[in-house]
Amino acid sequence: MLSNIDQKTWDGFFKLLQLGRFLLPIVALLIVWELAVRGGWIAANVFPSPSMIFSRAVELIFSTGPEQGMLFAHIGASLYRAVAAFILSVLIAIPLGFLLGLVPAVYRWVSPVLSVMLPMPAVAWTPILLVAFGQGDKTIITVCFLGAFFPVLYSTIQGVRSVSKQSVWVVQSMGGSRRHILLNVLLPACLSALISGLKLGMAHSWRTLVAAEMLAAMSAGLGYMIFAARAYMDVSTMFVGIALLALIGMAIEYGIFGVLESRTIRKWHGTSKIGGKK
Amino acid sequence: MSGVAIAKTASDDGRSVFDRFFVPLISLGVPLLIWEFLARSGAINDFLFPPPSAIFASIWSKSGLQFETGVLYSHVYSSMYRLLAGLALATVLGTLIGILIGMTQWGRFLFKPLLSLFMPVPTLAWTPILLLLMGVDNKTTIFIVFIAASFEIILNVIAGIENMNVKVFWVARSMGASRLQIFFKVIIPGILPYLITGVKLGSGYAWRALIAAEMLAASSFGLGFMIYEASEFMDMTTIYAGLIMIAALGFFIENILMGALEERTVGKWGVQVER
């Protein structure tokens, strides 16, 4: 029999082993890539090696020259735009989703418009916004807003519609007011749908941002950084930007929304999966 | 990326003719009429919001049905060509990788980490690098479509395999089926409903990514290119015409093209895998 502590160290060791197993193909890919560049099979100026990209990242982070702090300015600009668009879309989409989910007549008349708007790529609005607002934050935030709006709206509608009528009737017949029904029945019942909608909305906002920034940013933002680096054939910076986009996206998804999920849904509903298989 | 789910075939039979035709007609038509009226009367800026009649007239004149100046056809053709080429590539490679991950130890070991490495990268972030590697070419946009569609296909194929019954393999193997036979006669029909769902979801992502990629990387044709070029000339009518075409084609791909694909395969064969 293993003691408790032994079991823990054994678990930790096993997890480490799994992590190593997981990282092995990634490390192998990086090594092959590095060797291919060093060996001259791939032109380093078109496709730099991982070590060159890494040293470029270090340079960008710790530089003291004219580039000082530029990277963080890009990250800050991108985060500001994505989060502003996300908050805006949540503020509009969730009340609208409740309205559409609760009143069948409204849903019936609005859903054709939604089904036309839904397959529209958010980025496709950029040209109109470019003519209307010009380049800059306004255009980018509006495009990201449109990207985030529909996922949040749809999750809210589906969450509200999936609440069983019986539970509303029960509270109604016990004399619950409209406020009671909204706050104590509907909101907890569709919380998991709401949170998965928020998660999707933020992810869409972040993914739309890159394209919007490439098309419409004037001076800052990760998308702008990547697209501007293309003009100088500075591929290392482009890869640094791509890695940052992925890392920040993951940090938002797992760091913020993962914690939010475990704090609320797993605690209240006792399930570990959201929006997955039933 | 959204979760894996099999789309239910909606049973629209219960809805009346009124609901299916008149409600959409009115709910889409009335706002357009109000817009037309406001733009004509000068209540809203008719440069930023040209009246819908002008937009549809522009679609009509560009379509080439009236004069010999139809460029719209070339734009639509280029976009659809890129979409279908990328989608075909993603379907073939995505199915193979999905099956490798779902069925083999080494496939899971090799591809799963790489999948979770590349999945969080926003698809369009690859555009500038692809532009450097391949130039302003169809290849760049097709590759973007491929990236955008393949993850959804891979995930759905994996889910399809996980949901298959092992007994089906045992039966096939004990009857002496070769590996190739198992692949084509057991695995492919077994995962087909999931594969179709993956292609359907993937085509939605791909269409969005394609329009954006065409704005960034197309040389001469494509709907994305058309609207971006028009914005440089501040040609609002053309932009709106392009938007309407993009929305209509997006609707066509998602509901009619993919619906037909679903009906022809899953619906017709009635693929029912013992779960």
3D structure, described in words:
The complex is a heterodimer of chains A (278) and B (275). By secondary structure, chain A is mainly α. Chain A has eleven helices and no strands. The C terminus of chain A is likely disordered. Chain B has 275 residues and is mainly α. The radius of gyration of chain B is 22 Å and the shape is globular. The chains are: A mainly alpha (278), B mainly alpha (275). Chains A and B meet through helix 1, helix 4, helix 5, helix 9 and helix 10 of A and helix 1, helix 4, helix 5, helix 8 and helix 9 of B.
| Percentage of residues assigned to helices of chain A | over 70%
Q: What about the largest sheet of chain B? A: none
Give the beta-strand count of chain A.
0
Shape of chain A: globular
Spans where pLDDT lies below 50 across 5 or more residues of chain A: 271-278
Characterize the biggest β-sheet of chain A.
none
Share in helix of chain B: over 70%
Protein structure class of chain B: mainly alpha
Strand fraction of chain A equals under 5%
Work out the radius of gyration of chain B. Answer: 22 Å
Name the average pLDDT of chain B: 83
| Helix-and-strand structural type of chain A | mainly alpha
Largest inter-chain interface?
A-B, 60 and 58 residues
Distance between the termini of chain A: 38 Å
Give the rounded overall mean pLDDT of chain A: 84
Q: Looking at the chains present, what oligomeric state does this protein adopt? A: heterodimer
Q: Could you spell the SSE succession of chain A in H and E letters? A: HHHHHHHHHHH
